[in-house]
Specification:
alpha/beta; about 280 residues; about 30% helix; about 20% strand; eight-stranded mixed sheet
Length: about 280
């Protein structure tokens, strides 16, 4: 997926009739299959679209340290929006271009309000920077084999700048926890549900759309040029920003409700299905 970050020049249309100049794809549950790989069909469809003049930007909830190895393995050297929009990362140069951090005082207030409503939470946090650790507290379950650093002293959570805080609850579902958190702490932080077991507290007002708009501007592209693919409620703002939003068949119902179309699942080449059709 080399050169997927390059775009057609300002004022030029895509060759071959491809109707969008920017393709924004979520990573987990969207671009990646369940085994964390990308199918050859999807690779080829993206390569054809970028050869026709479109740019491809990965837009993921993962912070850079949890994303970089995937992009390297894919040979991806364009821009990536990471950390739910907090970070714009140049994969080819291994360089962080922009980064937004969480106000730790507001986050502390938000956590206190949520726990007053729900009872004790299991916590994790993503530290800022290219090498930022993910700190994981007692009881918090990290999916897959992602690297994390355990902590037991709550003060460790606040000792360095953070991009986000992850919360889990022993009995509430992800949707129930996210809704409860929004109700009591939505004026202090942005709350998103980004996947199974992944409810996050972000800087107020931050979303994938924030980071995507910044990345697109660097390429001279706009919302009207963009088709976006996703699978979770954290992709809703990105769909609202882009000209067209495509939900995967495996997507959360909240995202399907605002999508312009629903394609096949991430395990059934859903992105390729749409790109191939648009390339005809």
């Amino acid at each position: 997926m080399s050169d997927t970050g390059s775009a057609a020049g300002p004022g030029t249309g895509s060759a071959g009739g491809f109707p969008y100049r920017l393709i924004a794809t979520d990573l987990d549950g969207t671009l990646l299959r369940s085994d964390d790989t990308i199918s050859s069909r999807t690779r080829e469809a993206l390569a054809a679209a970028t050869a026709a003049g479109a740019a491809h930007i990965v837009v993921t909830g993962r912070a850079v340290p949890w994303t970089r190895h995937i992009l390297d393995d894919l040979g991806y050297d364009g821009l990536a929006v990471c950390g739910q929009g907090a970070q714009v990362y140049h994969a080819g140069e291994h360089r962080l271009l922009t980064s937004v951090t969480l106000d730790r005082q507001l986050a502390g207030v938000a956590l206190a309000k949520i726990e007053a409503e729900t009872g004790p939470l299991y916590l994790a946090a993503s530290r800022d920077g290219l090498e930022g650790d993910v700190l994981v507290g007692p009881g918090y379950a990290v999916g897959g084999h992602l690297p994390a650093v355990p902590f037991t002293d709550a003060s460790d959570l606040w000792s360095a700048p953070l991009n986000k805080i992850y919360i889990q609850h022993p009995t509430l579902s992800d949707d129930e926890l996210a809704e409860a958190a929004r109700q009591v702490a939505g004026g202090f932080v942005t709350v998103v549900m980004a996947g199974a077991g992944v409810v996050e507290l972000l800087p107020l007002g931050l979303s994938k759309a924030t980071g995507l708009s910044l990345a697109a501007r660097r390429l001279g592209l706009k919302a009207a040029d963009t088709i976006a693919f996703g699978d979770m409620p954290n992709d809703v703002p990105m769909f609202g920003w882009a000209a067209r939003g495509v939900a995967m068949a495996n997507a959360h119902e909240e995202l399907k409700a605002v999508a312009d179309e629903v394609t096949s699942s991430n395990d059934e080449d859903g992105i390729a299905v749409v790109l191939e059709r648009l390339s005809l």
